[in-house]
Specification:
The protein is an alpha+beta fold. It contains three helices and ten strands. The chain has a seven-stranded mixed sheet with strand order 1-2-6-10-9-8-7. Strands 4-3-5 form a three-stranded mixed sheet, with no helix packed on it. β1, α1 and β2 form a beta-alpha-beta unit. The chain starts with 6 loop residues before the first strand and ends with a helix.
């Protein structure tokens, strides 16, 4: 179960509109549940937009510059846009550990391992949503977000990692409800990695992620 042979690994070269991605996830979630289609790890980019999770506070939406989409994932407001790698992870946890907390921790660790491939010592912080690292000036900053939904033990949504997005676009929200820390990206940290480079790191570290959620 730790190899990717039974999972569809999909990369979309063009930006995917959020409603289209959500519809695809809904359809695939149902098909995975009844065994009609394989599990899916989908890597993509969105055009600039904000999403509101189930705990989103309207007061944390500071701008209407980009479309805002309500979503069934957990969490608050998140930005997605060009230069950010979004990973949607649709796996059947009935075939693995039916443990939500373990799945979230494994997803965080997967992103952390991928970032380590570029020398970025990232971490999860207790009580603070997302993936965090230190900037060259010693400030803590958020480099990735995690948000999932599980329906009939089939996962949806997943993670996003800032490769080289326009960080000013985050100013339209209070990301995940946390205002006291900035956001950062691989590029801002001085790592000249492409989206394809990061995808290679994700694929290299995916077996560790799958191993962590095995029964």
């Amino acid at each position: 179960m730790t190899d990717l042979s039974s999972i569809e690994w999909r990369k979309s070269k063009k930006q995917i509109a959020y409603p289209d991605a959500l519809a695809e996830m809904e359809q695939r979630n149902a098909a995975i549940y009844i065994g009609e289609q394989p599990e899916l790890i989908w890597l993509l980019e969105h055009p600039p937009l904000y999403t509101a999770g189930t705990s989103a506070d309207p007061a944390e939406l500071l701008s209407q510059e980009f479309p805002v989409y309500q979503t069934g994932r957990g969490g608050r407001h998140t930005y997605h846009g060009p230069g950010q790698r979004v990973g949607y992870v649709l796996l059947n946890l009935k075939k693995r550990q039916a443990d939500v907390r373990n799945f979230v921790h494994a997803l965080e660790d997967w992103v952390i391992r991928a970032l380590l491939e570029f020398g970025i010592d990232a971490r999860a912080v207790e009580g603070r949503v997302g993936i965090w690292c230190d900037t060259p000036n010693g400030e803590e900053a958020k480099i990735g977000a995690i948000g999932i939904r599980i329906r009939k033990w089939v996962t949806m949504h997943g993670f996003s990692v800032n490769i080289d997005p326009d960080l000013n676009h985050f100013n339209g929200i209070i990301p995940c409800g946390i205002s006291e820390f900035p956001v950062t990206s691989l590029n801002q940290l001085g790592v000249a990695a492409t989206m394809d480079d990061f995808d290679v790191a994700l694929k290299k570290t995916a077996p560790d992620f799958l191993r962590a959620i095995e029964k």
